[in-house]
Design brief:
232 residues, globular, mainly alpha, disordered N terminus
Length: 232
């Protein structure tokens, strides 16, 4: 009987260890590697950066969020007419973001990561390339959060947290316009607009601007003040 109990304990311990084993993965090619230079086209790079299927289906969502943010190829987000078009191109070229958008816990994991992101992690001694990559992650994160599937996954409490955090990120970007220029502050406004619209607190004459992320016809300052008043 004692031996039976001991065998059961050992079996349960091994089962627990198997469940706790975390799948880890990193991109096999990066810009500073010789293998990267051997790629003859963007398509070859995109193919080399695909996550293997066994990893893709087994990796936890938190790690998958980080992999999407750490995508080493030059981003396509800034070369399209609208932020949404940039996201859709990234979605087409990378299996990691396609998998993330299917996960039921994608919204909460993205929100958790968004809350963690801070200028405290910025280092002025980094190279200009590293600084640019750091800044770009804020823009990428907000594009992910603004996607309809993610917006729909949030309850009222999560939307409220996201509104509060997007206010903080917007204020941070405005305080550091030397780093966060161009479309970056607008991505924070897009997230705010999406959340207000989900709360039925935003009236639109043309929903196309909300879908595209360009927010033409929106007064960013007015929307910012509206969100601040709403979250009080």
């Amino acid at each position: 009987m004692k031996r039976y109990i001991l065998v059961c304990i050992v079996f349960i311990s091994f089962a627990a260890m198997a469940q706790e084993k975390k799948i880890t993965w990193d991109y096999p090619v990066k810009p500073d590697m010789e293998e990267w230079k051997k790629c003859n086209s963007p398509e070859e790079i995109y193919q080399a950066l695909q996550i293997p299927e066994k990893v893709l289906t087994g990796i936890d969502t938190k790690s998958l969020v980080q992999l999407c943010l750490d995508y080493p190829a030059p981003t396509v987000f800034y070369i399209f007419n609208t932020p949404q078009q940039g996201f859709e191109e990234f979605y087409d070229q990378f299996n990691g973001i396609r998998e993330l958008m299917k996960r039921k816990d994608a919204g909460i994991q993205l929100l958790n990561k968004y809350v963690e992101m801070s200028m405290d992690d910025f280092n002025f001694l980094w190279s200009l390339e590293a600084q640019g990559k750091f800044v770009e992650k804020f823009y990428c994160m907000e594009l992910f959060l603004a996607q309809p599937t993610i917006v729909k996954s949030f309850g009222e409490q999560e939307r409220r947290i996201l509104l509060e955090e997007s206010i903080r990120k917007y204020e941070m970007k405005r305080a550091r316009e030397d780093l966060f220029g161009g479309l970056n502050p607008g991505a924070s406004i897009w997230v705010m607009a999406r959340m207000l619209y989900a709360e039925n607190k935003l009236k639109l004459d043309n929903a196309d601007s909300l879908d595209s992320g360009m927010l033409t016809g929106f007064d960013a300052t007015s929307l910012y003040q509206q969100v601040k008043s709403y979250i009080r």
